[in-house]
Design brief:
Elements (H helix, E strand, L loop, with lengths): L1 H31 L4 H50 L4 H19 L32
Length: 141
């Protein structure tokens, strides 16, 4: 019980001291900069500096990504050159494989489906989609 009372008293004292400190600082700031011009420039400087830092960060990240992709592309071309040295495939076989792959791809693009459509007339003609009571603009009279 006494700890709760001490905690409340401490909180009240800290609260009153912080409010007094805020009041002192605000009157002092009002004396230094009565029109708020300095605060405006400080705020604008903070915003523009943060934008510049973000710009530099994004530019450097993009450069790092480009360098990494160039490095991986170089490694891939190195592996292709090694494979070319190991295996010797005739050009005619490569052309035949490409032609076969293109033919299979083109034949799989279009599915052969039955084009049978069935239209049933519904006995109920009312539909809430065409009802005027659900209109967007309802003006009260």
């Amino acid at each position: 019980m006494t700890l709760a009372i001490i905690a409340q008293a401490t909180a009240a004292a800290v609260d009153s001291l912080s409010k007094a400190k805020i009041s002192q600082n605000s009157t002092r700031f009002n004396e230094i900069d009565p029109w708020g011009v300095g605060m405006t420039f400080i705020g604008m400087a903070v915003v523009f500096l943060s934008l510049i830092l973000l710009y530099l960060l994004f530019m450097n990240i993009s450069r790092i990504i480009v360098k990494q992709s160039a490095k991986t592309a170089e490694e891939k071309t190195h592996h292709v050159e090694v494979k070319k040295k190991i295996t010797s495939i005739k050009e005619d076989e490569v052309y035949a494989a490409i032609a076969l792959a293109l033919h299979l791809y083109q034949s799989d693009l279009h599915d052969h489906e039955n084009a049978i459509l069935t239209i049933n007339r519904v006995a109920r003609t009312y539909s809430p989609w065409s009802s005027k009571i659900y209109g967007i603009r309802q003006f009260p009279r």
